[in-house]
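Handout, page 2. Input:
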Amino acid sequence: MIGVAPAKVILSGEHAVVYGAPALAVAVRRYARVASLPALHAGQLTLELPDLNLAVHYDYAQLAAEATQSRVRYAAFLDGRLPIGDVVSPAQLLLAALVELIGDTSERWPERGLRFAVRSDIPPGAGMGSSAAVVAALLRVAATRLDITIDTPALWRKVVAAEQLQHGRSSGLDPAVCLWGGVIEYRQGRCRPLAAELPGKWRLVASGAPLSATGECVEQVRCGFAASDIWAQFAATTTALGQALSERDPLALRDQLQANHRLLCRIGVVPAPVQRFIQHVEQLGGAAKICGAGAVRGDAGGMILVYHPEAVRLPPLPVGYATLDMELDFDGARVRS
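Output:
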């Protein structure tokens, strides 16, 4: 039994969505997969992360203490006493997510034990919702494995609660895209699926994993722009982009993506080398923008979304850049045998 959840790409609204502005995003065909396997030991949870060459084991008696410690570290982050990157490890994030679903009382966990193995072809740290997809896939398969009845909105709330530990102040957008799939409009916890295709030609260009984690970017932007009126400009751009999508207006779509890129540059999350690459894309008649948190340190900015009204024409790729196809996933998180 395997839980599967897609990656996400934000068309418009990253960072702004944290401040109540709308966002448009799509689920794409790159996946986190979590397999439920026969337990190794009774009364024990095993989490296997072969991509990280890691396996951890928790006795059920440890669950309450581990969950409490994660909450204590998160409170220290909120108080400014701990960096967000020190709140949870990858394994602790998955444990916290399972505790959100099942509870931290050991009597609620199956006596025979639990074992989950995680694999993902979503590039980590690239702005594609890697951690949200892993958590969504894990909770989907765990709920099925344990006969826990839970609808998608309730599952979304549990994924968001876990995501807070990873990213500090999650808007809830990444979990929404991973769970519902397709094209969505998202604002302040409300997810509206859109019956929309993507006109024109699209590609993803990987510029490399940022030196700064998502949580660090979110915090730096908050310190500089939390009270700024720039979020109203982001909101207007996203609304206009949504209108261009609904009207299948490729030139308006290009113009709004370019406007979104300039706003992201203003809040300081687009490294200079990425800006130069995007300038070259625009000179070829297209548009491009980072489609995640971006970066506040280093030269890499994660994934770049590239669009052209007619055919994607890319400038020569800088050393270390790579292209990826972009195909939509309309199913969202699910379980398969």
